Recover the amino acids of this structure.
């Protein structure tokens, strides 16, 4: 079912093969790897992304999530929106990949009770604690992804200055101290403050 879904910001399944107990999937090639390796990875894989490129990644990812939630039939909740599942083509256009945890939602269903799955640091609290999955779980994960894109820091890293806290906690602390722009990646020399906020 998911193999029939097409959108410019979703990784395209080209073909598959099933032979006895062996299975293989062939996806389109995306030469710039994942957002995690480009933005958050080691120095050898790291590429400095300017604000227009980061903003385009945000908009493309948003478009794909909206498509999955409202246009795909049946609706789909990805359940694993994170930097390593956002793949980048030669022009750094984003494509969501890895639908291994995705759940299908018929039109009349607003939530399902399910085993909690997804990446630490990206899980919405109500989903992590209660196992009640809604589209909001992807929206929360996307919000965490936005913080990573703006800050250039991983949500799972837990050290900011001398304090031990996660990216989300650090962001709230900066907001309370009216220093929210301190979250912006130092590599971003020019960016429109109103867009970042």
């Amino acid at each position: 079912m998911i193999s029939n879904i097409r959108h410019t910001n979703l990784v395209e399944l080209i073909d598959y093969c099933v032979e006895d107990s062996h299975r293989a999937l062939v996806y389109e090639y995306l030469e710039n790897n994942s957002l995690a390796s480009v933005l958050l990875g080691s120095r050898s894989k790291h590429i400095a992304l300017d604000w227009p490129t980061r903003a385009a990644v945000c908009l493309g990812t948003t478009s794909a999530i909206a498509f999955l939630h409202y246009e795909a039939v049946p609706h789909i909740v990805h359940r694993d929106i994170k930097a390593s599942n956002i793949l980048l083509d030669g022009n750094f256009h984003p494509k969501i990949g890895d639908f291994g945890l995705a759940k299908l939602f018929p039109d009349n269903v607003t939530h399902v009770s399910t085993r909690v799955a997804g990446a630490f640091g990206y899980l919405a609290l109500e989903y992590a604690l209660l196992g009640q999955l809604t589209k909001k779980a992807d929206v929360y994960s996307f919000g965490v992804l936005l913080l990573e894109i703006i800050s250039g820091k991983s949500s799972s890293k837990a050290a900011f200055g001398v304090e031990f806290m996660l990216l989300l906690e650090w962001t709230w602390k900066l907001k309370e101290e009216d220093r929210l722009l301190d979250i912006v990646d130092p590599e971003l020399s020019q960016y429109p403050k109103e867009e970042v906020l």
User: Anything to note?
Assistant: The mean pLDDT is 87.
